[in-house]
Each structure stands twice: as C-alpha cells, then as structure tokens.
Amino acid sequence: MTKVCAVIMAGGVGTRFWPRSRERSPKQLLEILGKGTMIQNTVKRLDKFIDPENVFIVTNKIQKGLVAKQLPNVREENIVVEPVGRNTAPCIGLAALHVLRIDPSAVMLVLPADHLIQDVVEFQRVIELAVEIAHGSGNLMTIGIHPTHPETGYGYIQMYNEDGKHNPYFSKGVYKVKTFAEKPNLQVAERFLASGDFLWNSGMFVWRADAILRSIKQCLPDLHSELMKIGTAIGTPQYQSTLEMVYGVIRGISVDYGVMEKSEDVFVIPGQFGWSDIGSWDEVYRIAGKDDRGNSINGRVIHRDTNNSFVYSENRVIATIGVSDLIIVDTGDALLVCKRGRSQDVKEISDYLKRKQMNEYL
Amino acid sequence: MTKVCAVIMAGGVGTRFWPRSRERSPKQLLEILGKGTMIQNTVKRLDKFIDPENVFIVTNKIQKGLVAKQLPNVREENIVVEPVGRNTAPCIGLAALHVLRIDPSAVMLVLPADHLIQDVVEFQRVIELAVEIAHGSGNLMTIGIHPTHPETGYGYIQMYNEDGKHNPYFSKGVYKVKTFAEKPNLQVAERFLASGDFLWNSGMFVWRADAILRSIKQCLPDLHSELMKIGTAIGTPQYQSTLEMVYGVIRGISVDYGVMEKSEDVFVIPGQFGWSDIGSWDEVYRIAGKDDRGNSINGRVIHRDTNNSFVYSENRVIATIGVSDLIIVDTGDALLVCKRGRSQDVKEISDYLKRKQMNEYL
User: Fold this and answer.
1) Best exposed site among A217, B144, B146, B204 by fewest CB in 10 Å?
2) Do B346 and A321 touch (CB under 8 A)?
C-alpha cells in the first residue's frame, strides 16, 4: 500500500492580517473563518485519508509551541522546526528527509497551512489521483486552480491544454505543465485568464519524497548536498547543530522556480474545490457570510445604518454608525480601520511598525 | 464690594460622547479638547475674577468623588450634591440657598461645566457687566450668543432689539428679553437666524441669589416652599434627609421655562467669546486643530491616505487606511466608528446599551 505523508508548511508571518496576525500568531494559527484555526482545518481535511501519525508540520521556533498546542494529534517529532525561513525549496527538502525515514517510497503531499478549501470530497479525489500518479511514475504533481478572475496576487501555471505532449494521464484530467509564471500585473493576468490554459498556482504539490530530492539534486545541487548533511544527522545528537549550520549557508529559493520550472515531467491537476488562499481581509469579507445589508459582523457589534462592511471584535463593544465599505478589526492592543479594497495596504502598517521597532505590535 | 459666587452645574451624563463619556466620567470630567477637563477649564476661566472659595459645584453622587479630585482648590463643602437630577430650576434654587449663607447680597454666576469659551477676556467683560447690573438692580441676567448658523441643538432667546422697552442698559449692549424658545426645527431655526433678534441660549445666568429665589417664589411657589425646607436644614444634621425628602417630591423643570419665561425684567447680554457647548463629536472635530489632510489625530495612530477624520486613541495603536470623513473613538472597552455628520446618533448607542442593560458600557 502507498504510504502518504502530509507536509504542512506553516512558517508564514501573515502580515496581511494585522492586527490579528502577529509573529507569534500568524494567519495559519488564527480562526479566520468559522470554527477552528486555519491549520487545524488543514489537518482536519486530511482525516479521511491520511493517518495522523503521517502528518508533518514545518514551522519555526516562535510558532512551534502554539502549533503543538493547536494540533494535539500530531506527533511531537513530526513538528519540524526550521532555524530560519529559506523559502519553500529548503523547507520541502528538509521535510522530504523526515518523510523518507518513515518509508523510502512514501508519497509527500505538500500543503500550505493557511488556505481555504470548501469542497473536501473533490479535494480528496484530486489528491488521491495525484498520489496514484506520483507513486507509480515518480513524476512531480502540482494542483492548479481554474482562475475565476484576473488575480494579481497569485502565481500561475501554464499547461499544455491538449494530449499531444507525452501525456498518458490526459484522459484523467491531468495536464503537463508548460511553465510557471510569477504574480502578473493586471494586464498580463487578464491575458492569462482569456487564454484558458493558465491555472492559479495553489502551492500544493504531490510527489514521492525520493523523487523531489532527486529533482533538487538535478536543479539545485548545492542545496541538495547541504540537505544530505542534515539527512545524515537526523536522529543523532548532531541534528540540531547541523540543521543550524546548513540553514546558515543555504540561500532561500522557492520550489516552483528552483525545481519545478526546470524539471521535465511535471503535471498539474486542475482542482475545483472552493479554494482560496484568503490573502487579505478583503478576501475574508468576500468569502464570509453576510447579513442583508452586506455586513459580516463578528463579535459584540452594535451597527446602525452600516453597509457592506466587515467588523471583527475580539472582546470590546464596537458601535458603527452610518458607515459603508469598511473593514474594522479590533484586537486587545490594536485596531485597524480600512476601506474595503485597500486591505493589501495592511502590509504597509506592519512594515511601518517594524521600521519604528514597535515590536510588541508585530 | 460685590461678592460674586460661581455656581457650576455639573450633573450631565453626556451620552453623546460615548464611548469616552460614561455615567462615572461624563463630558465635563473629560479632556475633550487640549489640556484640562471641561470642568477644570470652566473653573480656571474664573481665576482672574472669582475667589476660589466662592466657587460652588452642583453635581451628583456618582460624580462627586471625581469632581473633588479634579478640583482640589474648590472647598469640599462647596460641592453640592443633588440626590437626583430635577433639571435646572431646583438645582439653581438649591445652589442659591448655599450662596446666601456666604453673603445675603451675593451675586450668583451660573455656568454649565462643559462649555468651551475661547476668548476669556471678552467672557470676563460680559460677566462683569452682568454682575454690575444684577447686583444693582436685582434683575435676572442671561448671556446669549450671536448665532452663526441655524443650529437645531440649542434653545434660543428672542430680544427686544431696540431701546424703547424700558431698557436703561441699552447703551451698554444689554437687551431686554422678549421670550425663550425651545430647540427649533431647521425651518424655524433659519427664520430665527434671519430675523436678527434671536440669540443662542448659552445656559449662563447672572443674578443675586435672593433675586432668583424671589422669582422662583413667584413663578414656582411649590418648588420655593420645598426649597425653604432645605434652607432651614442647611448646616444641621437634618440637611441630608431633608434634601432627599424634598428631591423625592419636587418635579423637574428648567429655570428657562419655569422662571425666566414668566419673569419681568429679564435681560440678555450677547457675548462673542468663541463659545460652543461642544455637543457632539462632530463639533469636537470642527473645533479641533487639523493637519493638512483635515485630520484631527489624537494618540498613537498610523494613518495612510486618511482624510477629514477625527481619530482618538486612549491607549492602543490604531491604523487607518484609505478612509475619509470618519470619527473613530477608541477607549479601553469600547470603540466608536461613525460617519462625520452622524454623531448625534451616538445617543442611540447609549440608549441601546441601556435597553440591553449593558451597564458596564454606560
């Protein structure tokens, strides 16, 4: 039977959800929509088809405690801590080393910790198809999302939209990848959308652990040789010092551009399972349930003549009068009042706080 | 020499300044504009011409402690506590009894505790003129304000705008009062403004203590006979119980309509000393200093692309992005976000909190 391990990447700082997201409690560790934190819901979605002991989390020192607390069913030794963030290629390579110790032929399912997936049945179907192909062929599989609008906040995957290009899986709804594209500007995004052969890059991948390490070796040989030092040290008293030494010298690079883009035989499965990376308060508002005035009201809020607004109160009473199209997020020590459509600028607030060394608000 | 006593009425609950104003800390006890609380500034304005030992405060049980703390120079026995609020006529009658104990011919200057006066020199000139006439003649004097716009939030005083009506003080800029008008609707207020003989009723009065008690006797004989019971009890162990007994039976009525409207020989002096009753957050915004984007920023606020807004933070960090024409008032346990021009509706929030018995927020 194919052993499938999930690797959940949970190192993000989530500055776009300030003031709720902080260094110690980034987006993935918050209840953003409904019950359960993002990471709890990410793990819960795997319940039906992945054994809890095969779930790995890659996180950082600051968040480790809260991750462990929120996920009591994840084995402590499966919480892998990176000394510093070096983007996804080193993160995934490190996780692959841990997965290989469980089973040398294991398939890895790589998932961001902070995405929304509304149709779990369809999600499971797509993942199981990807696992089947990845296990049998050693190919690198990625999950794409059919774009619904010319989003400039996502990367894109271009696929060969026909079966001529050595694609034995075409009849199963699996496409060969032509190229990965970085976040486009609006004009380019509109072109992508119109072309019909671009998908959103969801950041979800499926492959055998040995296959991704082999691809890292081909595409990023320096990273691979450093990772091998960690591989040798796993389970020994030298693990921690080796890890820190290696992370001190490797450079940050994403798996998309460092590995996938340069590899042959990369396939993508387009998924339609109500996916969103919920990248901003505007997107939370878009997805959230609303009352008949278009408001998403969370917490103790007294609203008068208030329309199309998102209001979140952690503890305090909020009164709104005569306002429209606002995002109001109120926490213990900080408050955001932002015009709807402007929530991408929330990042500027974090940048400002960092510059001014107002660290207690980061 | 004329003995002048100031009587500062400080019983208001100030629901319009929620969430800053509360039952225990109403508007007059808050720093609303610049340094010093409203009542501290009211007392400070009298520094130059009224002996601190002749300053009286009429307040209620809930506020007494904070009043005494904010005004260390006011004698404790000069802080008069009403058992319940019964509008201005009983309040002023009670104060008159206390003033008479200091000097049977004393002149009383009655002042609300929560008004703004920007030109203190002119204010003093007007008051001294009123004192001079009130002391010599026994007339009831009131201070009016030249209206600058058809305000519907104030009462109005109509004056005889010529000297024919038995007015020996016309040459001094003093007018005989024709009538008092309640808060008008906009149409009526516009008529008042156009007529030229209506002034705003500032709620400031000047009279001899014996004169106002005489007028109360004429106009409100029931109130007067009850007040006499208190007068007999002042300085005896029966004072408190008599006060409570009397306040249990008298009805609430304002001095304007209960006494002034029915009295002969009431005079008004129009003042132009930068007066405002600061009745709402909108008016605070109007008066406050502003930056070049029209913002009045108070406290730790990070503002990006924010215009024509009033932002007040007690303790927390507030970030605003892309908003205009907002009033944001942030306190320890409650937050207001209100469109500019809508701050009169803040009272509805207090009403709601009262109805829902959310007493900790009142």
Assistant:
1) B146
2) yes
What ipTM score was computed for the predicted complex, to two decimals? 0.88
- Residue B5 has a CB neighbour count (10 Å cut-off) of 24
Search chain A and give the residue with CA nearest B19: A319
**Which tens digit of pLDDT belongs to each residue from B54-87?**
999 999 999 999 999 999 999 999 999 999 999 9
B335: which strand partners?
A318, B330
- CA–CA distance, A355 with B10 (Å, rounded to integer): 46
Closest CA to A178 of A165, A159, A162: A159
> What single letter denotes the amino acid at residue B164?
G
- Cross-strand bridge partners of residue A279: none
Residue A35 CA to its chain's centroid (Å): 19
User: What residues in A contact B313, CB-CB < 8 Å?
Assistant: 335
For residue A199, list its beta bridge partners.
Answer: A157
CB A110 within 8 A of CB A7: yes
Beta bridge partners of A111: A8
Q: Are A39 and A25 in contact (CB under 8 A)?
A: no
CA distance B326 to B324: 6
Return the minimum-mean-pLDDT range out of A22-26, A220-224, B105-109, B311-315: A22-26
CA distance B98 to B77: 10
User: CA of B253: how far to CAs of A296, B85, B88, B89, B113, in Å?
Assistant: 46, 10, 7, 6, 19
Domains present along chain B, CATH in parentheses: 4-276 (3.90.550.10), 281-361 (no CATH)
- Minimal Cα distance from A346: which residue of B? B321
Residue A164's pLDDT is what? 61
Instruction: With 0.95 as the threshold, say if the pTM is over it.
Output: no
| A329, two tokens | 């997020």
Calculate what percentage of chain A has a pLDDT beyond 90: 89
Out of B321, B343, B348, whose CB is closest to A339? B321
Q: Which residues of B touch A315 (CB under 8 A)?
A: 333
In chain B, the residue whose alpha carbon lies closest to the alpha carbon of A350 is B319
Question: B250 vs chain A: nearest CA distance in angstroms?
Answer: 37
Rounded Cα gap, residues A360 and B11, in angstroms: 41
